[in-house]
Design brief:
The chain contains 18 helices and 22 strands. With 557 residues, it is of the alpha/beta class. It has helices at residues 2-23, 63-80, 126-139, 177-189, 214-217, 245-257, 273-278, 307-323, 339-342, 345-354, 364-382, 411-418, 428-431, 454-458, 469-472, 490-497, 500-509, 517-534, and strands at 25-27, 38-41, 47-49, 54-58, 85-86, 95-100, 110-114, 118-123, 147-150, 153-157, 163-169, 194-198, 200-201, 204-205, 221-222, 239-240, 261-268, 328-332, 386-390, 403-406, 423-425, 475-482. Helix content is 35%, strand content 17%. The strands form five sheets. An eight-stranded parallel beta barrel has the order 11-12-17-18-19-20-21-22, surrounded by six helices. The radius of gyration is 27 Å and the shape is elongated. Zinc ion (ZN) binds next to helix 10.
Length: 557
C-alpha cells in the first residue's frame, strides 16, 4: 500500500511536470510594426502552436510558396525554438496554411485568419503571403519553452505605397556581401521592397564592369581618407573594395527571394571622380585625377562634349542591366557642378551643336546635363528599362517617363508630380538617416549634421496636401537614404537605421488615419525584441529618453 501510494505520488509528480511543460503558454500579440490596416480580434478559442504544428502550402509545387514556408519555419525556430515541418496533407487541423488566391487590387495584400484549428495566410501573390508571414513572425513571443496561444483574429492588410525603399551608399564606405545580406534581412523585417544600392561615387567605384576593368582596378581604391569633417588631416590608409558581377547577382537573388527588388544607382554625370581616375580621358581637363579622399562634391565630372563619355555610359549601363533585372535603374543626376563644362571647348562645342540656350530658369549647361541624362534614358528605354533620377533632373528638359526622387525636401517631388512624373519621396529633413538622431551630438558618433529623430521620420506625410487628387497619384513611394561618409562599420549602419527604419516602415505601409505615434512607441518597445534576437545594434534614444548618453565607443562594433 505504501509502495502503491509512492508510485502514484511519483506518477502524479511526473504527470504534473509533464503537464506543466506542455501546457505552458505564451500569447502571440498582433501589435506589430508596421500596423496592419484592419485587425479584428474575436472571442473565439485561440490557436495553440506546439511542436506538432505543421505548415501546409497551396499550391504545393510553387517555388515562392516553398521558400515562404521555409522563411516561416526559420522565424518560428528563431523565436520559439520549435521546428515546424512543411507537409503535404489534407488534414488541416493544427496547421498554418499558406495559400495564394486572395482577390485584391493590391498584389501585396494578404489576410491572416486565426481560429482554433488553424492559421490561414492568404495572399494576393507570393509577396502578399510573405507579408502575412512577417506579421505572424512579429506577433510571436520570444520563448524557448512555451507553446504559443494565438488569439482568434482576422487581419486584412495591404501596403499604402507600392515602392517602399531604403538606400545604402557603399561607395564612401564599403560593406561586405554578408553585411549587404544582413541589410536586406533588415529591410524584409520592415516590409520594405526596394533596395537602392548606391554603387558609384567620387570616393569609390564598387561594381565590376568587364568592358572598363580600370573602374575596379583603380577606381575602387582611394589612397587614404580625410579625417572628420574635411579637415586637412588624412588617415594614411588605403581603402577600397568592390563587388564582382557574380556577387552582385547573388545579392539580387537573395533580395528577390525576400520580395525585394535591387535598384542599382550609377550616379551621372557628377560624383564621377573615381571613374575619371580610372579613365582620365572622360574628364574635361584630361586629369590626372585620383579617387577622391575628401567628402563633398567634386567639380570634376564626366565631359559631356566627348562622344567617348556617352559610349562609356552605355557600356556601363549595358552590363548593369545584365546584372540587375529591375525595371528601374537609378542614374543619379544630383550635385553636378558646371564649372568644368563652362571652360571646356568640347562641352561648349556640344552646346552649340545641340543648339542649347540659356533662359531665366536654366543655363545652357543645365540643358547639357539633360542631354547626357536623356542619352542614358534612351539607351535604357531600348532595353525596356525606366530611369529614376534625383530631383535635380527637373532642372532642364525631362522625358515624362522619368521617375523623380525628391531629396531636397518635398519641393522637387511636388513640382515633378505637377509636371506628370512619378515621384518617390525621400526628403532629407525626414528621411536622411545619416543625420543625427538626437540633439546631444557630443555623445554621438560624428555624423554629417542635421537632426532627424524617430518622431520626425514618423511624422512624414509623403503626399503633399497642396497637390490635386490627380497629382497625388504620382506619389508612388517613399524611401530613406543612408549616406556613409561618417559611417565606417556595418554595426554603425545598424545604429543609424534602427529604429528609424521602423518609423519609416509605418509611413510606407500604413494608411495615415491608422498612424499614432504613442501607439507606435508602445509597439516598438515589443518590436525591439526582434532587434535583440537578431543581434542588431540599434539606437536606444526613444527607449531611454532619461538615460545619460554614453560614448559611442562603448557600443559593439
Ligand atoms: C543627394 O543626397 N545628393 C541625393
Ligand atoms: Zn567637357
Amino acid at each position: 500500500m505504501r509502495n502503491v501510494n509512492k508510485t502514484l505520488f511519483i506518477l502524479s509528480l511526473v504527470g504534473a511536470s509533464f503537464m506543466s511543460c506542455t501546457t505552458e503558454l505564451e500569447n502571440a500579440d498582433y501589435q506589430v510594426i508596421p500596423a496592419p490596416q484592419e485587425l479584428v480580434i474575436d472571442q473565439n478559442e485561440p490557436f495553440i502552436m506546439n511542436n506538432k504544428t505543421k505548415i501546409i502550402i497551396y499550391p504545393a509545387d510553387n517555388d515562392g510558396m516553398q521558400r515562404n514556408a521555409g522563411f516561416l519555419a526559420e522565424y518560428v525556430k528563431e523565436a520559439t525554438g520549435k521546428s515546424l515541418k512543411t507537409v503535404l496533407t489534407d488534414k488541416t487541423k493544427n496547421a498554418i496554411i499558406l495559400q495564394l488566391g486572395l482577390s485584391s487590387e493590391n498584389p501585396e495584400a494578404y489576410q491572416l485568419n486565426v481560429n482554433k484549428d488553424n492559421i490561414i495566410i492568404s495572399g494576393a501573390s507570393e509577396a502578399g503571403v510573405f507579408y502575412g508571414i512577417q506579421t505572424l513572425r512579429k506577433s510571436l513571443p520570444i520563448t524557448k519553452t512555451a507553446n504559443v496561444s494565438f488569439p482568434a483574429v482576422k487581419i486584412q492588410d495591404y501596403p499604402r505605397f507600392a515602392y517602399r525603399g531604403m538606400m545604402l551608399d557603399v561607395s564612401r564606405h564599403f560593406f561586405t556581401l554578408d553585411s549587404i545580406k544582413r541589410y536586406i534581412d533588415m529591410l524584409a523585417l520592415h516590409n520594405i521592397n526596394r533596395f537602392h544600392w548606391h554603387l558609384s561615387e567620387d570616393q569609390g567605384w564598387r561594381i565590376e564592369i568587364k568592358k572598363y576593368p580600370e573602374l575596379t582596378k583603380v577606381g575602387s581604391m582611394r589612397s587614404e581618407t580625410v579625417i572628420g569633417h574635411n579637415t586637412d588631416e588624412y588617415d594614411g590608409k588605403p581603402y577600397g573594395g568592390f563587388y564582382t558581377q557574380e556577387e552582385a547577382k547573388e545579392i539580387v537573388a537573395y533580395a528577390r527571394d525576400r520580395y525585394i527588388t535591387v535598384i542599382p544607382e550609377i550616379d551621372l554625370p557628377g560624383h564621377m571622380q573615381a571613374a575619371l581616375a580610372s579613365y582620365p580621358e572622360l574628364g574635361c581637363t584630361g586629369g590626372p585625377y585620383e579617387v577622391w579622399k575628401r567628402w563633398g562634391i567634386s567639380e570634376d565630372v564626366l565631359c559631356a562634349g566627348n562622344p567617348k563619355t556617352i559610349e562609356f555610359i552605355e557600356g556601363v549601363l549595358d552590363e548593369i542591366t545584365e546584372i540587375f533585372p529591375s525595371e528601374y535603374i537609378h542614374i543619379g543626376g544630383d550635385e553636378c557642378p558646371k564649372v568644368r563644362w563652362k571652360n571646356c571647348p568640347k562641352c561648349q562645342a556640344m552646346i552649340k551643336k545641340l543648339g542649347l540656350k540659356s533662359d531665366k530658369k536654366h543655363s545652357a549647361e543645365d540643358r547639357l546635363q539633360s542631354y547626357v541624362m536623356s542619352c542614358a534614358e534612351k539607351f535604357l528605354d531600348g532595353k525596356g528599362r525606366r530611369i529614376i533620377g534625383w530631383d535635380e533632373i527637373l532642372e532642364g528638359d525631362l522625358i515624362p517617363e522619368a521617375t523623380v526622387m525628391s531629396w531636397r525636401g518635398t519641393k522637387g517631388g511636388i513640382e515633378a508630380a505637377k509636371r506628370g512624373h512619378d515621384v518617390i519621396m525621400a526628403p532629407n529633413v525626414y528621411a536622411y538617416f545619416d543625420y543625427y538622431q538626437t540633439k546631444d551630438t557630443e555623445n554621438e558618433p560624428l555624423a554629417i549634421g542635421g537632426f532627424v529623430p524617430v518622431d520626425k521620420v514618423y511624422s512624414l506625410e509623403p503626399v503633399p496636401a497642396s497637390l490635386t487628387n490627380d497629382e497625388k497619384k504620382f506619389i508612388v513611394g517613399v524611401q530613406a537614404n543612408l549616406w556613409t561618409e561618417y559611417i565606417p562599420t556595418f554595426s554603425h549602419v545598424e545604429y543609424m537605421v534602427l529604429p528609424r527604419m521602423a518609423a519609416l516602415s509605418e509611413v510606407q505601409w500604413t494608411m495615415p488615419e491608422k498612424k499614432d505615434y504613442q501607439d507606435f512607441l508602445n509597439r516598438l518597445s515589443r518590436f525591439r525584441g526582434l532587434y535583440d534576437l537578431n543581434g542588431y545594434n540599434y539606437a536606444k534614444h526613444v527607449f531611454e529618453p532619461q538615460r545619460k548618453p554614453r560614448s559611442f565607443d562603448d557600443l559593439p562594433q
